[in-house]
Specification:
about 300 residues, alpha+beta, 2 domains, 7-stranded antiparallel sheet, 7 helices, rod-shaped, disordered N terminus
Length: about 300
Amino acid sequence: MTALAGGAKSVEKVSKPKRLYEDSGSVSDGVQAYEDEVRGRHVGGALNKDLEKLFGDLRTDREGPEENARKPKAKTVKAALKLKPPALASKPKSLKAVKLAKAKSGARKSAKLAKKKKTVRKKCRENVSDKLFRQQFPKISWSQWYLAFSSERPDVGNWLKRSAGTKQGFRRKGHFTCNADGPRVFEVGVQVRPRGKIYATFVGKRSAPKSVSSWGLGLLSAPLLAKQVNAVLSGKVRVFVRLGKANFKGKKAQSSTVDKTQATAVGTYDYAWMKSRPNGKPRLVKKAGTKISYDTA
């Protein structure tokens, strides 16, 4: 305090506010405190290029080149922050694991396709027109229907009473004769009234016989066919057979076409006499009140 003349009161000397860098113990600390104060006066601590360069040079001088080199530059830090962390390298799969994965994927696809095929409902063959059926197999020439069995003796032809016992009706002598000198696909059909529609109930195939005259012998003697024939003949019906010949000269080509035709027919249509359904039984079918197929035969 300084005394003033005339008994005036003493006035206390007002001290200036100290800066942050003035209290620093060293030059280095003072420079850092000054930089902090300057940055505090600017929003977000952003400085112009000149000030940034100034403080950068001061830091270099007080920290030394080695310590300053260890510090990351601002641009380097920003670029590093923008980079995404590298994805973890997956462990390479072995060839055995890859093959197993492919096999499982293929099995799942096959199962889905099989399930889809099972859900597709086949058309009942007896309800499909003969014209539509023939159009599906252009490589096959079908014969006329041959009458093989009848519950009542027909007026025309040589007919024999079937064997005594459980067998019903009459059979054509020698079954029937036809010009079949190679493999054939054949259909069996049932007619419930004369000159009526013949309902196809079975499809099969047969290789070339030893003699042309005996082609029809034993054609319907298979256990499944024999049971159905005997069952339907208990009513007033007739059983017919027709043959399909492949339109090729070579026997190998004929045999291949016959096999494919029979397989396609079974896969496309539901034949009442065949055990191609999930329950493994024939299908019960009635036409005009008469049974043309039994599910217990």
